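Re: beginner question about structure tokens

> Can someone show what the tokenized structure looks like for a real chain? I only ever see the sequence side.

Sure, here's an example I had lying around. Input first:
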Amino acid sequence: MNDLPVLLTPETIKELVPEGTISTRAIRNACAEGSLPATKIGRRWFIPRDKFFEFVNGGDTANE
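And the corresponding structure tokens:
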């Protein structure tokens, strides 16, 4: 997965998961509430690749 960009967008994440699993709106909501580690720049959310995979694998990234 190192061929992915260092910062992922909700659209990129949606392409990584099976179709119909999650919407880009749900990903943005998770970013906004802090359950998915992310940074907002302007109107766009960016999720660090490594933090996303930790999140998916059940790692606790909320306090980092």
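Each token stands for a local structural state, so reading them left to right follows the chain. The chain has a mean pLDDT of 89.
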